[in-house]
Design a protein that fits this description.
Blueprint lengths: L1 H4 L3 H35 L2 H49 L3 H6 L2 H26 L1 H16 L5 H44 L1 H6 L3 H26 L2 H25 L5 H42 L21 E8 L10 E8 L4 E6 L5 H7 L8 E6 L2 E2 L5 H6 L1 E4 L8 E2 H5 L8 H10 L3 H5 L8 E2 L8 H14 L4 E5 L7 H14 L4 E5 L11 E6 L2 E6 L1 H7 L1 H16 L1
Parallel strand pairs: 3-10, 3-11, 6-9, 9-10
Antiparallel strand pairs: 1-2, 1-4, 4-5, 7-8, 11-12
Length: 573
């Protein structure tokens, strides 16, 4: 955690200085009280009592100012540390590959970025105020108590080991329970995220009652795990208070006898009791702090799991930025599986070549590997075997950023962000001119409905484009990809929500205005891709046929089956 807290070293120093002054002021009270009792009250000297009283007021004010300073600088340190750590954690997640993200649920990452970091933030703040202050008070008060009466201080030698053993047992039992509690919180956050993301589906299937029950089950599991942890922690305070009271009773009993026997006086006894009280309160503060450390240790390890995760998809050594490429794509004996440990390949022995400017369609049954294939080209996943080349050069020799800038990708799930239509389209290129934005929108057949929107291109979109239809979202996503001016454009079933007339217009506009762009189209309908330059037929992760529509109708049984099944359905309708 040092890299994220080192920027606040000055604040830590100021916090500790104020803390030192506050602690010294607090340590002065028992002696001042003893002076009032031993000299002022015993002799009836009201002037002396008043003088010491004013000194005590001054010490109290000094303690107040120092306490405010400690609180201020410790808060600055804790909040600043959490801000830097949260930023680092988010940046790390942004660099994750899909496989890395798959290792953590969205709910879990959300919890780690919020609740877990807040736990560490509170630990830093309270640590500077307690974890340093309590040991200082403990040691100083213990020395003063022994100096006043070493025999009575033996009571502490009996009490303190009992407290240490009790605290050790509580913490050792609590830590695994706190980890389970955080996992239950992950599950709850995942449940909330999934429900809110798919709220339309929930309502359309009238599954509110089911989702409420599902949430209740996750919420009850969090309650159960939280109670298990708290049922252990709650023993800390009663044990501490019991031992504190036992110690005070013992001191009063044995100390009272010493006063009666003339071994010590009332003033010394008063100071000793005050110091003993500070010792025991310091132990109590430390016990609470150690409980907090146990709570935050679970969060600390969960954050470290993310920070220490090895990103499995990075720039290879010697990778260079792409300069000028024309869009020739070659797959050579490519095999792919989602996890390196998996024995099942999603794609096997994939080989084909696409010339610059060609339009290639990929068709096949559900689960054939169509989406997986096109996601390999921008290195959203890395291949297990073989080689993928762009203009004859292995794509691993290009930097990830420059490679992906040259490839436009429209995924099956149309994702838009809250903001204006213009802001969403500029995701393709932040420097895009108005002419480029309008041209891309026209190619995607989105210009007309944008102009009919309340504020045109400045119309505000709700989160995920909730105020648009499915077809409108698809067209905006296509326009956003076109604005990138990609060398290769991948359309992964991106017109499924668009009517056939609009789809035909989009294809025609692309043919006319994107002549130099290599285009991959994943489609379900053969009728929409029969005029492309090449069609690849996938089945069970393999290319079973390739060619034009005419060639495949003559030579490919699989293609013929798909074609006839779709035509039969059309005739039935």
């Amino acid at each position: 955690m040092y890299p994220y807290i080192k920027e606040y070293q000055k604040d830590i120093v100021f916090s500790l200085l104020f803390l030192l002054v506050e602690s010294l002021a607090e340590m002065a009270y028992p002696d001042l009280m003893a002076m009032v009792v031993g000299k002022g009250i015993a002799s009836g000297d009201t002037v002396y009592i008043s003088q010491i009283g004013f000194v005590m007021i001054g010490v109290a004010m000094l303690s107040l100012i120092s306490g405010i300073g400690t609180a201020r600088y410790s808060a600055r340190t804790g909040v600043g540390f959490a801000t830097l750590l949260r930023q680092a954690l988010f940046c790390k997640v942004q660099r994750f590959s899909f496989e890395n993200i798959d290792a953590f649920s969205v709910g879990s990452l959300t919890t780690r970025l919020t609740n877990d970091i807040t736990q560490l933030q509170n630990t830093v703040i309270n640590g500077l105020r307690i974890l340093v202050r309590a040991p200082f008070l403990l040691c100083f008060s213990l020395i003063m108590a022994i100096r006043i009466n070493a025999e009575l201080a033996i009571i502490l030698a009996v009490i303190m080991p009992i407290l240490v053993v009790a605290l050790t047992v509580i913490i050792s039992v609590a830590i695994p329970l706190f980890r389970q509690m955080q996992r239950s919180l992950d599950e709850l956050n995942s449940n909330i995220q999934e429900n809110l993301t798919n709220v339309r589906v929930v309502k359309s299937f009238v599954r509110e009652a089911f989702e409420i029950g599902k949430f209740k089950a996750a919420n009850d599991r969090l309650l159960d795990s939280s109670l298990k942890a708290m049922n252990v922690v709650i023993f800390n305070m009663p044990i501490m208070m019991f031992m504190l009271n036992v110690a005070i009773v013992a001191v009063v009993y044995f100390g009272g006898n010493m006063v009666l026997n003339g071994v010590t006086d009332v003033a010394q006894m008063t100071a000793f009791i005050n110091y003993i009280f500070i010792v025991l309160m310091s132990l109590m503060m430390l016990s609470l702090m150690f409980i907090m450390l146990a709570r935050s240790s679970a969060s600390y390890k969960r954050i470290c799991e993310v920070l220490d995760t090895k990103i499995d998809l990075v720039d290879y050594q010697g990778a260079q930025d792409i300069e000028d490429v024309y869009g020739e794509v070659t797959f050579q004996n490519v095999a792919f599986r989602y996890k390196s440990s998996s024995a099942d390949y999603i794609l096997k022995d994939i080989s084909f070549n696409v010339k610059p400017g060609e339009v290639v369609a990929i068709i096949g049954s559900t689960g054939a590997g169509k989406s997986s294939l096109v996601q390999l080209l921008p290195r959203l996943y890395d291949i297990a075997e073989g080689k993928i080349c762009l203009d004859g050069k292995d794509i691993t020799q290009y930097t990830l950023a420059s490679l992906r800038k040259k490839i436009g990708l429209v995924l099956q799930k149309n994702t838009l962000f809250s903001g204006t239509i213009r802001e969403n389209l500029k995701w393709g290129s932040g420097d895009a001119t108005e002419t480029e934005i309008v041209t891309a929108a026209k190619i995607a057949q989105a210009h007309d409905f944008i102009l009919n929107s309340p504020k045109g291109y400045d119309t505000y979109l709700e989160q995920g484009g909730a105020n648009l239809s499915g077809g409108q979202k698809q067209r905006l996503c296509i326009a956003r990809a076109i604005i990138k001016k990609p060398v290769v454009l991948i359309l992964d079933d991106s017109t499924s929500a668009v009517d056939t007339v609009t789809e035909r217009k989009i294809r025609q506009s692309m043919t006319e205005l994107l002549k130099n762009t290599t285009i991959f189209i994943i489609a379900q309908r053969i009728s929409s891709v029969r005029d492309v330059d090449k069609i690849l037929v996938l089945s069970e992760g393999k290319i079973v046929a390739s060619g034009t529509h005419t060639q495949l109708m003559k030579n490919s049984v699989e293609y013929q089956e798909i074609y006839h099944s779709q035509n039969q359905k059309a005739e039935d309708l």
